[in-house]
Write a structure and sequence with these properties.
The chain is of the alpha+beta class and 231 residues long. It contains five helices and nine strands; from the N terminus they run ααβαββββαβαβββ.
Length: 231
Amino acid sequence: MTVMAFDYKKEYKEFYIPKGTPSIVTVPKMNYIAVRGSGNPNDEDGEYRQAIGLLYGIAFTIKMSKKGDHQIDGYFDYVVPPLEGFWWQGERHPVDAMVRTDRAGRRDGVVGVDYAHKDTFQWISVIRLPEFVTKEDVDWAVREAKEKKKQDFSKVEFFTYDEGLCVQCMHIGPYDDEPATVEVMHRFMEEQGYALDITDQRYHHEIYLSDARKVAPEKLKTVVRHPIRSA
């Protein structure tokens, strides 16, 4: 009898497969592997592309640990969860220029996200960890991957994030079209009696359900999530 690997997307659909209309959700504390960086995510040899390679290198080292000497207590077979990212723009603190706007849509002289200057993006790229994975297991995976792949994985860190109360929506289409989805989310949020709560501890969050290398831009599926509080 074949035992199916645990798939977080299927088991927790409320967090990974929301509807195409906004909804309110409370997200529990989760552990991730993370790489921090800045710059244009579209740069072919840029920091963002390198970060993704580092994350998947560690993610699969942990997943395949069952076949080696490092046996993780409580391990169960699972599907590696999707890539996610926390984003902001500028040097001040993690407050996304796309969302902290006045009625005219302006903040600090910028209307929405300044997509003409993606080099100003800052981000934390992450992949969720199963609950049984500890910081010590991540530290082991970094050492193991470095030895086997002859590559520096020291930028990968164990990262815990307690997201809490949020508004979210499935965005279908190019990443550059996200502001339209965000506008709908914020209108819904306000109608439900909530206010935006993006701070230097609570971020603009994206979960990537599609491989941008293989899927046409108009078919990309991305979960967009923003922290909120009671108004």
